Each structure stands twice: as C-alpha cells, then as structure tokens.
Amino acid sequence: MAERILIIEDDPIALELIEYTLQQEGYETLTAPNGVEGLVKAREEKPDLIVLDVMLPGLDGFEVCHRLRAEPESAALPILMLSAKAREVDIDTGRRMGADIYLTKPLDLSALVVQVDTLINERHGDG
Amino acid sequence: MLDEAGPSLFELVHLQRLSEGLKRLGEEAFDLLLLDLGLPDSQGLDTFFTVHSQAPGVPIVVLTGLGDELAAIKAAREGAQDYLVKEQVNSNLLVRSIRYALERHRLVKEKDNFLSTVSHELRSPLFSIRGFLELILNDKVPDAEKQRHFLALAYEEGKHLNSLVDDLLDISRMEAGQLQIEMETVSMHDVIHRVADCLQNIATEKSVDLQVIVPASLPTVQGDTGRLEQAVTNLVHNAIKFTPQGGEVAIRACVEDESLMVRVVDTGIGIPADALPNLFQRFYQVNGSATREAGGTGLGLYIAKKIIEGHGGRIWAESTLGRGSTFSFTIPISPRP
Q: How many CB pairs below 8 Å do chains A and B form together?
C-alpha cells in the first residue's frame, strides 16, 4: 500500500507542483490549504508524513507543528517543513516546534524527494 | 530618577541582582532593559553578554560608573542601544535615551520584517518556476497537455515575479530619496482617462462598470505624469479587483480648497475598520495571508502613497465592510503663472 503524505500549503500553484512530484514518486497525497484544515485532516487521515508550509492564513506552520507534536497521536508523525521563510531564525523556530526537517524554497525537487524518502524510511525502520 | 520623570512615562520593574533579572526575563516580556554593568552578582561586559543572550530581542541601555566607560562602549559595539554614565545622567537624558533606543529597535525590527517578507515573496514563485521546469526537463511529465499546463503556470509565476521585482525596485528608489519627480504640467483629466482606457478590459471581463466623472475644466497640476498615472492605476486596479461581478467603480475628480482631489469609489467587498490604518503599509493584505491570494504584490498602495506624498499630497481610504470603499487623494494645484 502506498504511503500517504499530507501537504499543507496555501499557494495553489506550489501545492500542485508538490503534489504532482510526490505522486510521480508513488506516494498518495492529501492536501489542506490552511493550518486548521490541515490539523483536522492529520487527525482523521493519519498520514505517514506531513509536508508543511509556514506562511499560511490563520495558524502559521510553526503553530501547526507545535500542536501536532502536543497531541499523542501525532507526536511521532514525521514532519517536513518546506518554506520560503529562509532566515536562520525561521529554521531554528521550525526545529524548536518539532519539525524533523526544515527545507527552504526554492530547492531542487530531487532534493525534496530524497528527504521525503529518507524520513518515510526512517519511520518504517523504527516500526 | 525615572521615578522623578514620572511613573506615567514607563512601567518600571526594578531589580538589584542579575540572577533576579534573568529569572524575570524568562517569565515576562519587556520592551527595554536598563542594565547596570556594576551589579552585586556580576560585573562588566559579562553582565551585558549574559543578559543579551537570554533576551536577544530586547533593546538594552547600559549604565556604567565614571571611569568604567570602556566596558560600556564595548557593550554598545556588541549590540547595546546606548550607554549612560550614572554620574552624568539627569532625568531628561535618561528618558530621551530610552525613547531613542525603543524607536531605533522598532525601526530595525520593521526593516527585518520587511526583508523577511520580500525574501519570502521572491522565493515562492522561484520555487514553482524552477520546479515545473525541472519536472519537464527530467522527463517526468509525459503527457503533452500536462506539460503545457505546467509551462503556463511557470509563465504566470514568472510574470508575478516580474511585477514584484518592478515594485520592489520602485520602492527601493523611492526610499533612497530618488523618487524622480519629473516636474511638468500634468492634466489629471487626461491621466485618469488613460488609466480608465487601460483598465477597461479587466473591468469588462468581470462585468464591473467603470465610470469616469471628471470635468474637462479640471485645473492642471505640477508633477510627474508617469508616476501619477501609476498611482491612479494602482487604486483603480485594486478597486476592480475587490469588486464582484456586476459592481461599479467610479473615478471622480474635483477641486477642493486649493487642491485637486481624486476619488476612486467602488461597490466592492469593503475593508474592515481595523485594517484601515494599515492599508498603505508594505505587503499589507487585509486577510493576513500570503500575498498570493489577492493576486497582487501587496505593494501597490504603499507605492501610490509614496508618489502622492512626493507630490505634496495626501492619500486615505474610507470603507464600509460589505458595501464598498473609497480611496481618495489630493494634490496641490499648480500656482497660476
């Protein structure tokens, strides 16, 4: 069964790009255009990994990450933050909020795929 | 001394030991720290470094004794906003120093925020452009129609990036004081008609009725035709953007006092009252999300404001949520020859 990735991203063009890329790699994708819906989907669908943008309307990605980590069901969920917010302080904040990896846009999609693959495999390694 | 200056000026918390200060910093947020480098439990530059690393975002004004200024000067080099020599300070000086430190800090933070937003806004479309092209170049898009679709998206993102770069360069020039206002005689009547002609298409596409109500006898002004056209365009384009199908946008001009007044009136979605004071800020978007949703750069109103104020005029907005908005500006009329 294909692994399922939840993508939380409000820019519809970036979302289409990330979705297509991951689908090409054989992943099943779910999407949410903002943090609140993202949290609901994460709880209901229990994805294998979350690709999380930071600049979102309403709750920002940092807050979403924080909340996911605070709930026992999602505390161990692999979270990859992907954002055009690229200052050191942003990357720091991402890690502090519990992201496993923080990648900055723009970046090669091949690099994104490698990180996604690694995170998903690590998880299976533990399981 | 601060107590003398008046407890109404600042809310003060007075602690006498570094350990107490550090503990308090961990519990509460402060706007500014007045730090004596000669505390009973810590001396000199170390005091400053310890506090600064504990609360990196808080501006610090250090106090030092006569003869110990070297440490204070070093602290200022390492990030303290100011230093004061205790024996030489009076309450006026103290208050002024605090005020300046707060203001400088606010400006630095604002610049940081702006740069962070600029950086984000430029990087986002680049990600999409590079990404779609990477996919196609790596033969990951076998379907010809999908390819075409992705190329079209990359193209749109390219145009958006173009607008952003143009606007940012404009702002950069304006901030550097190089807003070249080519002074000439400008017919706002002609400018407004030109803008309306240019934007008629997008108004028609949305079935928005675009009207121009400008008397032919409107006096001329001294200014930069191109820039004024840019300002009017930004206002009218916004009005059309935020007015739903079947609505109206009217551009009116008249003389008011000794100025020429232009009003762009729309029957659009309106603007909430708490957003009104912030409208003309850079990258401000009413719904608070990333700039992409509104489809613009988030800089149009700021640029319009800079242009109008550069002409000695005023610009402001009025609105009723759900009913519409009116954006107005005035420009002093040219003196009669």
A: 78
> pLDDT 10s digit of each residue in chain B, 337 long?
555 544 467 778 888 888 888 888 878 888 888 888 888 887 778 888 888 888 878 898 888 887 778 888 888 888 888 888 888 888 888 888 888 998 888 888 888 888 888 898 999 999 999 999 999 999 999 999 999 999 999 999 999 999 999 999 988 888 777 666 678 999 999 999 999 999 999 999 999 999 999 999 999 999 999 999 999 999 999 999 999 999 999 999 999 988 999 999 999 999 988 888 889 988 877 765 434 445 678 899 999 999 999 899 999 999 999 899 999 999 998 654 4
Task: Map B288-320 to HEC letters.
Answer: CCCHHHHCCCCCHHHHHHHHHHHCCCEEEEEEE
**Where do we find the tokens 């020599």?**
B85
The complex scores an ipTM of 0.93
Q: Which residues of B touch A12 (CB under 8 A)?
A: 292
Q: How far is CA B157 from CA B58, B144, B153, B258, B290, in A?
A: 38, 20, 6, 44, 15
Within A25-104, where are the H helices?
35-45, 61-70, 88-96
Residues of chain B in contact with residue A106, where contact means CB-CB under 8 angstroms, are 123, 126-127, 130-131
Amino acid at B39: L
Burial letters for B312-333: b for 16+ Cβ neighbours within 10 Å, e otherwise?
A: ebebebebeeeebbbbbbbbbb
Chain A positions touching B289 (Cβ under 8 A) are 10, 55-58
B259: left (phi over 0), alpha (psi -120 to 50) or beta: beta
CA dist A72 → A44, A48, A64 (Å): 14, 15, 14
DSSP 3-state of B91: helix
How does DSSP assign B183-235, residue by residue?
-EEE-HHHHHHHHHHHHHHHHHHTT-EEEEE--TTPPPEEE-HHHHHHHHHHH
How many residues can be counted in chain B?
337
**Burial of A6: CB neighbours in 10 Å, binned 0-12, 13-18, 19+:** buried
**Chain B contact present for A113, CB below 8 A:** no
Chain A residue nearest residue B156, CA to CA: A13
- Please answer yes or no on whether A14 and B128 come within 8 Å at the CB atom: yes
Q: Which of A20, A85, A105 sits opposite B135 (nearest CB)?
A: A20
CA nearest to B287 within chain A = A57
